[in-house]
Amino acid sequence: MRRNTRYGFGAVAVSLALALSACGTTDTDGEGGDDAEGLTASIGIMGALSGGNASIVIPSVNGAKLALEEWSAEHKDFKITLQEFDTEGDPAKATPAATKMATDENFLGVIGGAFSGETRATKGIFADAGLTMISQSATATDLTLEEPSPVFHRVIGYDEIQGAAVGKYIAEVLGAKKVYVVDDSTTYGQPLADKVRATLGSAVAGSDKTQEKQTDFSAVVSKIKTAQPDAIFYGGYAAEAGPFLKQLRDAGVQAPFVGGDGLYGADFPKAAGEASEGAIVTCPCLPSEEAGGSFGADYEAKFGEKPGAYAAEGYDAMTIFLKAFEDGATTREEVEEFVDNYEGEGLTKTYKFDEKGDVAESNVVVWAYKVQDGALVADQEIALG
User: Fold this and answer.
1) How far apart are CA 293 and CA 283, in angstroms?
2) Dihedral sign, CA of 201, 261, 54, 130?
3) Which of 162, 216, 214 shows the shortest CA–CA distance to 188?
């Protein structure tokens, strides 16, 4: 193993029984190895499945479902289920969900958390239980670089990379000389905006903060109108970005609007209405039409719509767990060892996790998407470096 997978049990309501037997049920002798036929286990997936930011998460859940359905059709001796936990992206609601999964020995893996805040609040619970996490969309840099967890992995790049790419896009593609940067004061939005500020340097003409669940943005809108920037960047989530942009346009501010991946989903253009037209959203996720194989067509056939935010990444995260079961992993420790050492080609990139759980920066992609006719459409890949 590349990372230390010895866990301390006894914290945050993790039962002693898990320390003795953290495994799924199986019809074999239960010792793993090369034969995992008959394995019965669950994979959990948690995130905002309802509320104003659900469109950022639901496509990745559907991607995971599709991967499991396709795999199960070829592996009928396995009984793997995907169990969903709606946290609404709230760390306080994610904590009991994490505790439930951690203390139920049938869970052998978790896809998520989807948001950085809920991931930060729960990764200690999963570490104490030795329950492997693979996040499809939690991008906060500190999750791995500052406070790594022995069980946390993610299939996308972190915000230091995305923020630098956003700054480069604003400066080089939009050609902005005066940029106003706003963040929502969250542990996701603020660090992302900080990296954009650092990348833009003297081009930052002003900066301000908003809050989660804020609805009246008149004060910051007034400041931006006075500053007359060439572009505006917002680090935060769709629920607030939509009305913020609408109020900007209503006030006559027409500067290009750019947001990070917290805006990537149908909820943002829905909340902003016609004001969202032309807005740019960046994401360290691959457009479905660029994903490998027939994923896009298969997803649309299954769910009646084109893949959305992190759908292919959700598919890849589930696939890695399923490959662990194929390899004979039947316990949490065996799953963790497999994922730590996994190397393989996914729909979106080549996977090999480093000692902190990140994929290689050389395999990370960041794309700019543009709102056209109320939908996010892939615009261009942003060259990194």
Assistant:
1) 21
2) negative
3) 162
When pLDDT is cut at 50, 70 and 90, the band that residue 288 belongs to is confident
The residue count of the chain comes to 385
141-176 residue pLDDT tens: 999 999 999 999 999 999 999 999 999 999 999 999
What is the token pair recorded at 167? 């700054």
pLDDT tens figures, 195-210: 999 999 999 999 999 9
Tell me how far apart the alpha carbons of residues 49 and 109 are, in angstroms, rounded to a whole number.
19
Q: What is the DSSP string of 275-312?
A: GGTT-EEEESS--GGGSSTTHHHHHHHHHSS---TTHH
Phi and psi angles of residue 227, each rounded to the nearest 5 degrees, phi first: -70, -25
Are 230 and 178 in contact, with CB atoms under 8 Å apart?
Answer: yes
Token pair, residue 132, equals: 């492997």
Rounded Cα gap, residues 214 and 183, in angstroms: 12
Give me the sign of the Cα torsion angle 247, 250, 251, 253. Answer: positive
H or E element: which one contains 134?
strand 133-135
Task: Quickly tell me which residue has 């001796």 as its tokens.
Answer: 77
Per-residue pLDDT averaged across 69-89, rounded?
A: 97
Integer Cα distance of 355 and 1 in angstroms: 9
For 237-286, how does the pLDDT look when each residue is reduced to its tens digit (9 = 90+)?
999 999 999 999 999 999 999 999 999 999 999 999 999 999 999 999 99
In one letter, which amino acid is 62?
A: N
The answer, yes or no, to whether the previous bond of 113 is cis (omega within 30 of 0) is yes
